[in-house]
Design a protein that fits this description.
The complex is a heterodimer of chains A (394) and B (148).
Chain A: E1 9-16, H1 27-41, E2 51-54, H2 74-78, E3 88-91, H3 96-110, E4 115-122, E5 135-136, H4 151-166, H5 174-184, H6 199-203, E6 207-209, E7 212-213, E8 223-231, H7 232-235, E9 243-250, H8 266-281, E10 290-293, H9 299-308, H10 316-319, H11 338-341, H12 348-358, E11 372-377, E12 385-390
Parallel strand pairs in A: 2-3, 2-4, 10-11
Antiparallel strand pairs in A: 1-8, 1-9, 4-8, 6-7, 9-12, 11-12
Chain B: E1 15-16, H1 23-30, E2 35-39, E3 45-46, E4 60-64, E5 68-77, E6 92-99, E7 106-111, E8 124-133, E9 136-143
Classes of the chains: A alpha/beta (394), B mainly beta (148).
Chain lengths: 394, 148
């Protein structure tokens, strides 16, 4: 049965702040810029916004999390002078930005608000960050004393096992990572818009936790991206072509390995989520014209490709070769450069790029004629989420 | 085999903090025994410890296990990925092993003195108690053929 809220809500505007690495400018300024741009893009004024949704969690351990400085939560915009009419908000603790989109769809469909601002703001702190405690409590007690703490070793261990079981070689990942950089070179919102990468650059990169090299890890940025969502009915009267939310899902399957969840079966964890998107929308893998697949670490793209059924299990490294996922390929993937080369936006870059592609606003990286964009974020066990966006109101 | 020491004085490993659910695991490790939670009702093992059995919601009880395992995955983690380890030292090989008692019963360890090129999924491993974090003895895993 299709989703009761299928295409009831549309993205009416998208806005970007500047994108930087480290900066002394408070993050709230970036979020303000992105929000203003998204609201203007939708042809609205800020006082039209009466709903707010974000996933605010800072992307690193040891964050101070000062509202408006190194994170931008709902509180930041509630204090804006234009926000007096806000009557609904949601702040997701898990699930990334697709969860915020889903929350906003529910609120708009239920009439809790009429115009929702959905954003994600990301910050790179000064100095070394990601510091870990000298004491390891809870599940970390069974990993951190052995050097295993945080997303990098989790992903490295999962990726090693994937390569061993599929017979793949890490060198083959160059096609995906260099391809993403090529896309970023055509994206003015990408932090690496002006920096190229060759296969030799990739193969010469230093190891972080093998088989993950530096360029398999996304690039931390300070930036914000915002979307304006409203009902499809209202969106038809606004200046931009509406982009409809045809499906929205979360990864809720049981984690087989709670402590080592990222080393369990990512593909198995992602498959029910994507199946839910097909069921909700009534569409299938063959309808997808462009895919934005989370790449906080490059191998997550492989897991999502297999979970979505674009290729068989263990085949994704072969699938990404020969230009198949390039802008003019059979399945364009991460056309804006993804987290690897556009910048680490925890999925909001992927969402915004999907909107631009479906509106035919992607400039030099525009895919020929996409009707549906699949956005899958998280990796897939860790905060997996997804939306399917369409140009037509299904 | 290299001559890297099993106990690396330069590495200040994070120290496990036992709690009501996990204290028995760490107390046994201090005595050189590996114990894992096993459900008294359905017999399923689970790790890390949980307040209830995640298979049937029954009562878990710590049970001695053989300490035999196979290699699931590994990574050589370079600084500064490894907590408590100063920069400039050799990478730490972090491993995941599966205890022979049950498929999917995975533990984390680190491996010292082994060439990563000798590692493969399924390699037999066995438990050793040859390192500490603070005063806490850590159960670790070494290749089963390692004479040490």
């Amino acid at each position: 049965m299709t989703w009761a809220n299928r295409c009831v809500v549309a993205v009416a505007g998208v806005g970007f702040s500047a994108v930087e690495r480290r900066t002394s400018t408070p993050l709230g300024r970036f979020a303000d810029d992105a929000a203003a741009a998204a609201i203007a893009d939708a042809g609205l004024t800020p006082d039209a916004v009466d709903g707010l949704a974000t996933y605010p969690t800072p992307p690193f351990e040891g964050a101070v999390a000062r509202s408006g400085e190194d994170m931008v939560d709902v509180e930041h915009f509630l204090q804006a002078p234009w926000a007096r009419d806000v009557g609904w908000y949601s702040q997701a603790g898990e699930g990334m930005v697709t969860t915020s989109v889903r929350d906003a769809v529910h609120a708009l469909a239920a009439g809790a608000c009429t115009t929702a601002l959905v954003w994600r703001a990301m910050y790179v702190p000064p100095g070394t960050y990601g510091t870990h405690s000298t004491a390891a409590a809870g599940d970390a007690a069974f990993a951190a004393p052995y050097g295993c703490a945080g997303a990098i070793p989790w992903h490295a261990l999962a990726y090693r096992r994937y390569l061993e079981l599929s017979g793949g070689r890490r060198e083959a990942m160059a096609a995906l990572v260099v391809g993403s950089r090529n896309n970023a070179n055509r994206n003015p919102h990408a932090v690496f818009a002006g920096r190229t990468m060759t296969e030799q650059d990739y193969l010469g990169a230093r190891m972080i936790a093998d088989p993950l090299c530096l360029f398999d890890c996304d690039v931390p940025v300070t930036a914000a991206i915002a979307l304006v969502l409203t009902t499809a009915e209202r969106a038809h009267d606004l200046p931009r072509p509406p982009v409809f939310v045809a499906a929205a899902a979360q990864q809720t399957t049981r984690r087989e390995h709670r402590l080592h969840y990222t080393m369990g079966d990512h593909v198995a964890a992602g498959t029910p989520l994507v199946d839910d998107l097909w069921r909700q929308s009534g569409l299938g893998v063959g309808d997808v014209g462009v895919a934005q697949l989370y790449d906080g670490f490059a191998p997550s793209v492989l897991y999502w490709l297999e979970a979505a059924g674009f290729c068989g299990r263990g085949e994704a490294l072969d699938f990404v070769q020969d230009g198949r996922i390039a802008v003019d390929g059979a399945l364009p993937v991460n056309t804006g450069g993804g987290s690897l080369s556009q910048g680490r936006m925890h999925g909001m870059g992927h969402l915004a790029e999907a909107v631009l592609q479906l509106r035919r606003d992607a400039g030099a990286r525009q895919v020929a004629d996409p009707r549906a964009a699949l956005v899958l974020v998280g990796s897939p066990m860790l905060r997996g989420g997804g939306v399917l966006l369409t140009t037509e109101q299904l | 085999m290299s001559d890297r020491p099993a106990t690396d004085a330069a590495w200040t490993r994070p120290v496990p903090v036992p709690d009501d659910v996990t204290a028995a695991f760490w107390a046994a490790a201090g005595e050189g025994r590996l114990v894992v939670q096993r459900c008294a009702d359905c017999g399923t093992y689970q790790h890390p410890p949980r307040p209830r059995c995640t298979s049937c919601a029954g009562e878990p009880a710590y049970t001695g296990v053989s300490g035999d395992a196979t290699l699931v995955s590994w990574t050589a983690a370079h600084d500064p990925v490894v907590p408590g380890r100063p920069r400039g030292l050799a990478p730490v090989t972090i491993v995941v092993v599966e205890l022979v008692e049950q498929p999917g019963l995975w533990l984390v360890s680190d491996l010292v003195g082994v060439d990563d090129r000798e590692l493969a999924v399924g390699l037999p491993m066995r438990v050793a108690f040859d390192a500490t974090a603070g005063d806490q003895v850590l159960p670790r895993f070494v290749p089963a053929g390692d004479p040490s």
